[in-house]
From TrEMBL:
Gene Ontology molecular function terms on file: chlorophyll(ide) b reductase activity
Family note: Belongs to the short-chain dehydrogenases/reductases (SDR) family.
Protein name: NADP-dependent 3-hydroxy acid dehydrogenase YdfG
Domain of life: Bacteria
Organism of provenance: Actinoplanes regularis
């Protein structure tokens, strides 16, 4: 084993699944987790990747995941906190309380609990890089119908910057990973057919497929950034360029779906 050892939480679908494949193709030794044996077994992970059943909101599960990776590969060099949920696209008072709790638990509480375990272990081993996944709301953007999700991502950005201050002067770093708008079930859920038809016009300008974004993100993560750094696929400049050239660039990200 010569490549880095990378862990991706929530690596059984969507962006997480894409990252597992991209890191593997880049020569890394990769581990991932899902919340059930069925999701881990059905992830279609590349050969050599280690799948572990773990709930990121449970510190014991996170420690179990860390230990399983260390036992298999000898260490953990990079950890990506990717696991995340979104509520239904509804007003806050229309949401089931359990749905709100689940999103806050995984996106914010789970990332904080997992980060606490991982950072302590990385400091003990003398090196490591932790990455937290941004999302809608991280930059202060407000979207009606996604209040709990946006609030957790806004809080996560603060938490990551605070972790960076706490890690200053150590051999461990923390960074923010921003995939932008990616075509997954989280992006397109809960639209009526008419609403989705309108939303697709924006998606076809700003969004990208998982297989486009994740190899670029993986390469940036493997290259590393300074403590507290941020890697973003969809920058403001790129978004402005896409809107300016939309009339000349015909994209259909949903062809065949």
């Amino acid at each position: 084993m010569t490549g880095p050892v990378v862990v991706v939480t929530g690596g059984t679908r969507g962006i997480g699944q894409g990252l597992v494949r991209a890191f593997t193709e880049a020569g890394a030794s990769v581990a991932f987790c899902g919340r059930s044996d069925a999701s881990v077994q059905g992830a279609g992970a590349p050969g050599g990747a280690l799948g572990v059943v773990a709930d990121v909101t449970n510190r014991n599960d996170v420690r179990k995941l860390w230990d399983a990776v260390a036992d298999r590969f000898g260490r953990v060099d990079i950890w990506v906190n990717n696991a995340g949920l979104s509520t239904s696209r509804r007003k806050l008072w229309e949401l089931d309380p359990a749905e709100i709790d689940a999103v806050v638990d995984v996106n914010l509480r789970g990332t904080l609990q997992a980060s606490a375990v991982v950072l302590e272990a990385m400091l003990a081993q003398g090196h490591g890089a932790l990455w937290n996944m941004e999302g809608l709301g991280s930059n202060g953007q407000i979207v009606a119908g996604l209040t709990p999700y946006g609030a957790t991502k806004r809080g996560l950005t603060y938490a990551t910057k605070a972790m960076a201050k706490e890690l200053a002067g150590t051999p461990v770093t923390v960074g923010l990973l921003s995939p932008g708008m990616v075509v997954t079930d989280l992006l397109t859920r809960d639209y009526s057919p008419e609403e989705l038809e309108q939303a697709r016009k924006i998606f076809n300008i700003l969004a990208d497929r998982v297989e486009t974004v994740t190899p670029w993100l993986a390469a940036k993560v493997l290259a590393g950034v300074k403590n507290g750094g941020r890697v973003a696929w969809l920058t403001n400049r790129k978004a402005a360029y896409r809107f300016a050239t939309a009339a000349f660039r015909r994209r259909d990200l949903f062809a065949g779906t």
